Fold:
Amino acid sequence: MEKEFKSNFLTRSATALLITLPILGIIYLQNVELLLLSVFLLLFATNNEWLRNSNKNKIIHNLFFLVLMILCYYLSLSSIKFLIIVIGISTFFWFLFGIFLLTEKTSKLNLISFNNTYIRLIILISFFCCSLILMKIENLFSFSNFILFFILILNSAISDSSAYLVGSSYGKTPLFSEISPNKSLEGFIGGMGSIFILSLVFCLFFNISLSFVVILLTGSFYAFVGDYFFSFLKRKSGVKDTGNILPGHGGILDRIDSHLSSFPVLIILLMHFSA
Structure:
């Protein structure tokens, strides 16, 4: 078991490094068009992967998704109100799923599946809207657009990695085992604990309000909710991973699930607390 864990951890780490390097390059270049194009292509590939796990026509639904993202981009040029509405709807969805998860009533969510077009669109389009809004609003908590984008990615990534490491090493208490038997309470605490430390470091280093700690912790919690949401979808569909393009992780959705759920919640909180 220990040998398998080490092998899997090395594979996951190597893949994560290959993913991180381009992100760091984009952050370094600070090119808005390059970042948005990267998110655009990532989400298009994610949408295609989602459709492969459904019974929808990939060509028609991919084209429709493409048109929606282009429409969001052009609407954002004149106003961000539409973006905020989309992000707000997505945040409300994650809030509701979080309640069903915590009360262990996810079995009643019969309408949630890979075949649900509305859920697919609101989850994926809202992430694009989050990226658009981040590139438009300056100096939230005194961070530049690109640094804040990186912090939000780092928040989910560290939360995920810490939960995996702590859970694999010390996890003994099952947490919502009907959805994902490999996740544990210890892993969840490890993920939240790492973000608590990270957010305190940011507050002390950048001399910003301690409300940033609450914001990142909330984002970490919803990263956990998103992880369970996609585990719920996969269990209903009888698949282990949404794809196999990323060694050690599975598919694109398996890698960015926590980002998709935490980003809209974080954007709403950041805009509220820094207003």
